[in-house]
Amino acid sequence: MTKRVLDLWSEVDVIAGYKTYIDLIRPWVAGKKLVSTGMRQEIDRCREVVEIALEGQRIALVSSGDAGVYGMAGILIECLEEKDALDTPLEIIPGISAANAAASLLGAPLMHDYAVLSLSDLLTPWEVIQKRVKLAAEGDFVMAIYNPKSKGRQDQIEWVRKAVLEYRSPATPVGIVREALRGESQVVITTLEEFTQSPIDMLTTVIIGNSNTRVVGPYMVTPRGYVL
Amino acid sequence: MTKRVLDLWSEVDVIAGYKTYIDLIRPWVAGKKLVSTGMRQEIDRCREVVEIALEGQRIALVSSGDAGVYGMAGILIECLEEKDALDTPLEIIPGISAANAAASLLGAPLMHDYAVLSLSDLLTPWEVIQKRVKLAAEGDFVMAIYNPKSKGRQDQIEWVRKAVLEYRSPATPVGIVREALRGESQVVITTLEEFTQSPIDMLTTVIIGNSNTRVVGPYMVTPRGYVL
């Protein structure tokens, strides 16, 4: 949570968000009017936020990580557009995205060019995701993978493993972080050859190293290229 | 600055960093011992930090944005390795990287898969950078470009413009943000065709939209794919 967010709570009348996130911030928002909704109700949530704002109330919409990365910022702007209300005052406050949080727990895997990808095919054709994985692998980008698995989607990450192995060594370091910086984080550093044998679920971020990424003691590090 | 960083200042004895960053945090660190160094002295700065830590003092090394993205986290771990001191207690605190800060000022351009690239060829061969730009463009990744120009390096961004035009429409939105969330931010939303006519320097982050990115009122938005 940034200083801007800590200051924000006193400036708004209402706080809205997915139930789990509202629960996380409860200690900071005692006495505020709270509007919480369930998962996969993003559009309804945004429409409700816009309605409340158009009534003249100051409302904060809470997103996890960075609202601007697979978060609520885009859909909220589209809901303002739908209501012809794009002149409504809006501040988007950036946060620590899961890739950056996971990286901080692994060491420094994102020190060089990287690609951020989601494997969720709910809103993106799987063929588009496959193409991006292949090109990122070919470009030797470090890869930060969001939504690697869900209950109904178990096999994509294994496809990714095989696709990246076409371009990188089986020994390439891979970091797996569950619930990064949210309570009890679980951190594993393993290899491209073996990483899909570790537990991975929808709360996990997977970071695949590039051809220079090394394991340095307890850390996963992608060197920037300085010569010591 | 995150809550963790605000809490940190009281936990350390010494604070080190590039002079400009030390100046930015001066209001929070009154009375602390400060060690500031100039630009391009990253290795010396890290070695000094390691020495102070090995003397038993608690020291914070300040980086701008996210220390884990083109920042000091990796080189610090390599300096610990050099001194055979990898068991030294180390906490890497993630921050808001320039891409995420710039995105928040532009609207929501990073709502879908994106690639983070630096055009600095000080430590990376220009041919590697060129290859990555082409592959990211082909993969329809939103592109967040760090270090687009420096005093001695003016022409690469024009090469990038032409390379991306091979894959994307001239009307593709491009956002240019200078000094994102650091004092007086300057924000421009323009097009792939024209963006190199806007002022760009080493304090600028450039975000090139993908094939779905739209200008929505005053915002640049890459839709996630929700149907309203």
The number of distinct β-strands of chain A equals 11
CATH architecture of the largest domain in chain A: 2-Layer Sandwich
Oligomer: homodimer
How would you sum up the global shape of chain A? elongated
| Low-confidence blocks of residues of chain A | none
Mean pLDDT of chain A: 94
Instruction: Please outline the major beta sheet of chain A.
Output: 5 strands, mixed
Major β-sheet strand ordering of chain A: 5-6-9-7-8
CATH fold-level topology of the largest domain in chain A: Methyltransferase, Cobalt-precorrin-4 Transmethylase, Domain 2
Order of helices and strands of chain A: HEHEHEHHEEHEHEEEEE
Q: Give the strand content of chain A.
A: 15-25%
Distance between the termini of chain A: 35 Å
